[in-house]
Amino acid sequence: MATHAPRHETRRIRLDEHLPVDHRLSQIYRVGAGLMGLVLLAFGILGLVNKVGFFDISGDTVAGLNTNGSLSVLSICVGLLLFVGMIIGGNFASTLNMVLGVAFILSGFLNLGLLETDFNFLAFHIQNVLFSFVAGVMLMFFGMYGRVSATLPHDNPYWRARHPDEADQEQRAQRRERGEVLRKGTGE
């Protein structure tokens, strides 16, 4: 008599790639991407309007931050990318916010090490490094909102993707409740 080890059914968690357009999480991701994109776009445009040198290491000050032409163009490109994320919304905007948030934080550390060197091609000063950290944390907050928490509500699509068995049980229970309400309403 052979005994078989119980088979563990592995269920691949697949997150729906498109949140509904009016889903509250999508709106938060869009707002975060749009606000940060607007700030970066304005900073980049102001830098170019002031006609700073493209690789001028000393840089000029715009809105309290040091800049040069290359940092202005980079800011405009990232700002436009965030606007694309705002338009697309959903998981794309969330992931974009998180990735760019990490990139801003890494840029802050990298440029902190390059301060006062000949390799400071973006003309960073300490206020730029601090802005990079703050922008990175804000982008990560907007990207992770509703995705990363120990107390996500059970109607959250990310909670449902991580707990498919419990989500299925809750959905069946809700259907039974709706069926009972409908039967009572029709007099059956």
UniProtKB/TrEMBL annotation:
* Name of one Pfam family that matches: DUF4383
Region described as Disordered: spans on this chain: 160-188
Biased composition regions of type Basic and acidic residues, renumbered to the chain: 162-188
In terms of superkingdom, the source organism counts as Bacteria
Which stretch is the leader sequence? none
Ranges that cross the membrane: 28-49, 69-89, 96-115, 121-142
Q: Print the keywords alphabetically.
A: Membrane, Transmembrane, Transmembrane helix
Record-given protein name: DUF4383 domain-containing protein
Q: Which organism is it from?
A: Streptomyces maoxianensis
